[in-house]
Amino acid sequence: MQAEIRFKDIKKSYDGKIVMEGFNFAVEKGDFVTIIGSSGCGKTTALKMVNGLIEPDEGEILIKGENIRGMDQTQLRRNIGYAIQGSVLFPHMTVEQNIAYVPNLINKRDRAKTRAAVSKWMGIVGLDGELRERYPSELSGGQQQRVGIARALAASPEILLMDEPFGAVDEITRSQLQTELRRIYEQTKITVLFVTHDIGEALKLGTKVLVMDQGEIQQYAPPEELLSHPATPFAEQIVTCAR
Ligand SMILES: Nc1ncnc2c1ncn2[C@@H]1O[C@H](COP(=O)(O)OP(=O)(O)OP(=O)(O)O)[C@@H](O)[C@H]1O
Ligand SMILES: [Mg+2]
């Protein structure tokens, strides 16, 4: 089967320091892959390669078998939702304008259609309608993250990249966001790559978990398998925390 996303013989270094080398990894369409590993092991680097924000030194990123290097970058990014931790919202735009950003580009003059899409996504991520006209600075951290997720999803991407998107919220909000994301995933069957530091979150959300250490893949397996048969001492150490 053709992979939805394939990292092929990737090498990446910064200032001569190798982050990853001979990195090979494939994500099937409809998988929800959670990525967990030590700080600085290359998770964000890997994620940003998928939407072309970072280019590998060697190797290829293939989406549906096509090298992204030759693709129109705007088109590529429009098809890939990207949600990261922290303030990634446009600060001078309201909640509505933030979420409507990509639908506006697509629907052009059809305001009603865009408004309806904004309402729909605000509902799905659990944002109260009366927050529409607020600016990001007037929202709580959890609300900002919901807006970020709604904005990423409103473009109806086939692939969703999330880099520790629930890092800065309290346990209850985090648990709600996890449940909502999992529901959205089940409804839309998009392909998700989700970076987290939290093994509980990785096991709860992922259909597969990628365990990384120092640019190397330690294990890539469904949660049950990772728990019952950790493949390396590093994987063992990580799951011990979740047992
Ligand atoms: N622009 C850059 N210039 C130089 N070094 C970089 C750059 N970006 C990342 N690095 C280094 O590359 C390595 C991998 O970084 P990356 O951001 O991918 O790690 P990460 O796994 O996402 O870490 P964390 O869990 O802390 O977010 C780190 O050692 C980091 O310091
Ligand atoms: Mg990171």
Your description of this structure?
- The structure is a single chain.
- With 243 residues, this protein is α/β, with parallel strands linked by helices.
- It has 2 domains: 1-79 and 159-172 and 191-243, 3-Layer(aba) Sandwich (Rossmann fold), CATH 3.40.50.300; 83-156, no CATH class.
- Helix content is 38%, strand content 26%.
- It contains 10 helices and 10 strands.
- The strands form 2 sheets. Strands 6-7-8-3-9-10 form a 6-stranded mixed beta sheet, with helices on both faces.
- The radius of gyration is 18 Å and the shape is globular.
- It starts with a strand and ends with a helix.
- The relative contact order is 0.17.
- It binds adenosine-5'-triphosphate and magnesium ion.
Question: How would you summarize what this structure contains?
Answer:
The chain is of the alpha/beta class and 243 residues long. The protein contains ten helices and ten strands.
Task: Supply the number of helical segments.
Answer: 10
List low-pLDDT spans: none
Helix coverage percent: 25-40%
Q: What's the main sheet like? A: 6 strands, mixed
Provide tags for this entry.
243 residues; alpha/beta; Rossmann fold; 10 helices; 38% helix; 26% strand
Write the layout of secondary structure elements.
Elements: E1 5-14, E2 17-27, E3 32-37, H1 43-50, E4 58-63, E5 66-67, H2 73-78, E6 80-84, H3 95-99, H4 101-107, H5 111-124, H6 141-154, E7 159-163, H7 171-188, E8 191-195, H8 199-205, E9 208-213, E10 216-221, H9 223-228, H10 233-240
Parallel strand pairs: 3-8, 3-9, 6-7, 7-8
Antiparallel strand pairs: 1-2, 1-4, 4-5, 9-10
Magnesium ion (MG) binds next to helix 1.
